[in-house]
Amino acid sequence: MARRVTVDPITRIEGHLRIDVEVDGGRVTNAWSSAQMWRGIEVILKGKDPRDAWAFTQRICGVCTTVHALASVRAVENALNLEIPINAQYVRNIILAAHALQDHIVHFYHLSALDWVDVVSALKADPKKTAALAQALSPWPGNSVTRFEEVKERLKAFVESGQLGPFENGYWGHPAMKLPPEANLMAVSHYLEALEYQYKVNQIVAIFGGKSPHIQTFVVGGVALAINPDNEATLNMERLLWAKKLFEEVKKFVHEVYLPDVIAIGALYADWLKYGAGVTNYLAVPDMPLDTKGESFDLPGGTIFNGDLESVKPITSFNDPYFRDNVAECIAHSWYQGDWTKHPWEEETVPHYTDFQPRGKYSWAKAPRFKGEPMQVGPLAQVLVGYALGHELTKKWVDYSLKRLSQIAGAKVPLKALQSTPGRHLARAIRSAMLAELGPKHLDLLIKNIGQGDLEIFNPPDFPKGVLKGFGFHEAPRGTLSHWVVIEDGRIANYQCVVPSTWNVSPRDDKGQMGPYEASLIDNPIADPERPLEVLRTIHSFDPCIACAVHVLNPEKKEIVKVKAL
Amino acid sequence: MSRLFANGLMKLRRRDFLKAATIATAAMGLPASMVDKVAAALKSPARPPVIWLHFMECTGCTESLLRTSHPDVATLILDLISLEYHETLMAAAGKQAEENLRRAVEKYRGKFICVVEGGISTKDGGVYCKIGGRTALEILKHVSADASAVIAVGTCAAFGGIQAAAPNPTGAVGVRDIVKDKPIINIPGCPPNGYNILATIVYILTFNKFPELDELNRPKFAYGRRIHDHCERRPHFDEGRFVEQFGDEGHKKGYCLYKVGCKGPVTYANCPTQRFCDVGVWPVAAGHGCIGCTEPNFWDNMIPFYEHVPGVEVPAGQGIVGKAERIGKFAIGAAAAGIAIHAAAGVIKKATTKEKEE
């Protein structure tokens, strides 16, 4: 007899998410993913100045801060057919890389590691053995006996205070927790160190973004970050050198701590490599443009269907019709009136709340589809697409990681194993290893260009009379993000965000096809339905961001109708 | 915390109390020998309990705490406060998370600080934001009733924020519109500087009192002066040296950003003195105008962001100090109190037609 388990709220994510699963014989047999908040940002954008849209949309999410700002300025520039100076492109890319690194580090250590790491068990660890284990994995200087003793003492004092605060009522001692105490202590120590490194890499975002979260240097047409190596009030050599040093430190942390930790946890939980694949259609867009138009990129994009790498088809420019023409959203199971599937430029959405109806409408999120298919987005999609396209940097880090993983697990781990719950974490760490190289690369490109005397940062936008349509995409930390704008006489007539977490949190569509979260939960083991840790593992592996996922299109000249409150 | 928490000492009887301590100990996964220590912590918590609620928000305010170093977030949650509930950081989820909330409210009745991040939907019974099956509206009323004080972190919690921008589709409001019987501190900003949040919390813990507040319940140490008053570009304003377009010669020389939309003359915040992320930066220093994010309804009142603030007399090269002071007063406008300008809707829009100063 199947038993329904509801997890609400899913914590350690951004936003408000409810997951329902049916458990039968210790396995998940059915699943529903339900976004629990709607803020109506796109309704608010109607009639506003398109130059301001980036500031509004950035507030969709403060965890993936920067990403909506970037997609927004790109969408408006696309509508205007406006190129931006190469310096502006580099500045945006540096922010992109630094922010993504911060986001990935925080996601792994602070938002999801506690699904795999038993904090209370770390108290039983021997610091000497912990150091031996950690040193076998990596030459990181922080892996010392002294450091682990110090962390153990701090943890002990904290637990003995009797106030566990955020660690209270975690799944400590859960049967699915398998790490030895030493691995747990190592992870707790790195949890604390990761706080320092996410702080450092974020400082790069602030140097180029004016502040963080919610940077304030992006403008339609470029950046409002004045560059002048011969002035004291602008981005000059001192600022550039500061960012360079921070990138170096963070690169070392990613290569010597984050990636090795994810590989080790993947190896110690190798039995999980068979769970959580779910939807195996993948979508990623190219990013980190190397030119002013967006036709040449450092990160590859494209699609893969049915997990078959041979099926890869690249997306090659900011104007690629393959992307532009194949995105649509379905609301058959979402809290909006109707059951249509429409292209983002054409949507008209009116909220219609019905409460949770597993066979009817059950989520504020819509169901995005590509060529009618659900797609999984995120670092895994980008890594698989890059690998399939023969992208060198991707291949280097994937091959390295699988080799290390196989060594530690004591059995060959194939590429296919990436299509799993731990595989999504590993892909994120692999993407971080790549970004830790690409961030400093783009900083060097910027410095070189400034050295050639080019200080241009801005091409002023001009809004003609009439209707313009634009779209802008960005491969955000959580995957493919796209903004779609219709501008009429210089004002926003229509604005739509198709967001990574919407692709992943997607409810069923009109054909009954599950979204990636839902599909990935099927067949997951559940040791104790009262404490469904395994559900959290799989959901967290996507890095959910629900404030992003939920949004609505502004209906043409229609007010939002009153929804039925239950 | 004596003054704030005095009126709400544990009302449980001893037997219930020990039972609560035993359950709490078990819930933490600790051995039974820890019951005494947990009981002691319940009676007189070494670290003051904080319940942090997330409503209609983007988590940017929490993220701003990850960008501080003195103290850093680890020190905050391990050594300074006891963070009893915080959706983004807590290990527990679902039923266990909701148990933590219920238990913390019971255990620390009248003794905890309630921090709110995010606006509260009031339209249609608040269905636009639900957590654990309850609306944000219900949760706020329930939790704040037992709190010693409420800190509204960020412009959303303070004033409704972005979702309250016209046409406010979800009927979003700030804490002050719902909670009427508790002391409230507002720490607006989108998001606020992490140090403004930390300094407020530590101020209360250290001095056992609220910091001095302005008319909008904002701590004066952070919101006492206009951006314009301490801006490093102010001398350029006074001398009439302006950026006319991003990337122009004036921009490359660090001139004043007033003409490209800076809202510094009408915004109260310590950004120019506090700065962000320990790298000595803030938006105006980088080269973009202030967007007025610490002010109520700034999403309605401060747009378009790239049009200049109306009613500010521009010195055009004759300025210097005496003139600048006069401009300061003028910027606050015909309304004598600074607060009035916050309420005036569409100031910028009205201005664009009225003023031409080039």
From TrEMBL, chain A:
Q: Which domain of life is it from?
A: Bacteria
Tell me the residue numbers annotated for binding Fe cation. C64, C548
Question: What subcellular locations does the record give?
Answer: Periplasm
Main subcellular location of this protein, as a coarse class: periplasm
Residues that bind Mg(2+), according to the entry?
A: E42, H551
Q: Which UniProt keyword terms apply here?
A: Iron, Magnesium, Metal-binding, Nickel, Oxidoreductase, Periplasm
Entry GO terms, CC:
periplasmic space
Which terms in the Gene Ontology molecular function aspect does this entry carry? ferredoxin hydrogenase activity; nickel cation binding
Q: Name one Pfam family in it.
A: NiFeSe_Hases
UniProt cofactor(s): Ni(2+); Fe cation
* InterPro entries the record matches: Ni-dep_hyd_lsu (IPR001501), Ni-dep_hyd_lsu_Ni_BS (IPR018194), NiFe-Hase_large (IPR029014), NiFe/NiFeSe_hydrgnase_LSU (IPR050867)
Q: Which residues bind Ni(2+)?
A: C61, C64, C545
Q: Which PANTHER family match?
A: HYDROGENASE-2 LARGE CHAIN
* Similarity comment: family membership: Belongs to the [NiFe]/[NiFeSe] hydrogenase large subunit family.
Outline the subunit composition. Heterodimer of a large and a small subunit.
Q: What is this protein called?
A: Nickel-dependent hydrogenase large subunit
From TrEMBL, chain B:
Q: Which residues does the UniProt record annotate as the domain Cytochrome-c3 hydrogenase C-terminal?
A: 223-306
Is Oxidoreductase there in the keyword field?
A: yes
PROSITE patterns the record matches: TAT
Q: Which residues bind [3Fe-4S] cluster?
A: C271, C290, C293
Q: What does the entry list as the binding residues for [4Fe-4S] cluster 1?
A: C58, C61, C156, C190
Q: Any coiled-coil ranges, and where?
A: none
Q: Where in the cell is the protein located? A: Periplasm
The cofactor named in the record is: [4Fe-4S] cluster; [3Fe-4S] cluster
Residue positions binding [4Fe-4S] cluster 2:
H228, C231, C256, C262
Q: A GO term (biological process) for this protein?
A: anaerobic respiration
Annotated ranges, domain NADH:ubiquinone oxidoreductase-like 20kDa subunit:
58-203
Protein's UniProt keywords contain Aminoacyl-tRNA synthetase:
no
For molecular function, the Gene Ontology terms on record are: 3 iron, 4 sulfur cluster binding; 4 iron, 4 sulfur cluster binding; electron transfer activity; ferredoxin hydrogenase activity; metal ion binding
One matching Pfam family: NiFe_hyd_SSU_C
Q: Which keywords belong to this entry?
A: 3Fe-4S, 4Fe-4S, Iron, Iron-sulfur, Metal-binding, Oxidoreductase, Periplasm, Signal
Q: What Gene Ontology cellular component terms go with this record?
A: [Ni-Fe] hydrogenase complex; ferredoxin hydrogenase complex; membrane; periplasmic space
Which family would the database say this protein is a member of? Belongs to the [NiFe]/[NiFeSe] hydrogenase small subunit family.
Q: How does this chain assemble?
A: Heterodimer of a large and a small subunit.
Protein name, as recorded: Twin-arginine translocation signal domain-containing protein
Record the organism. Thermodesulfatator atlanticus
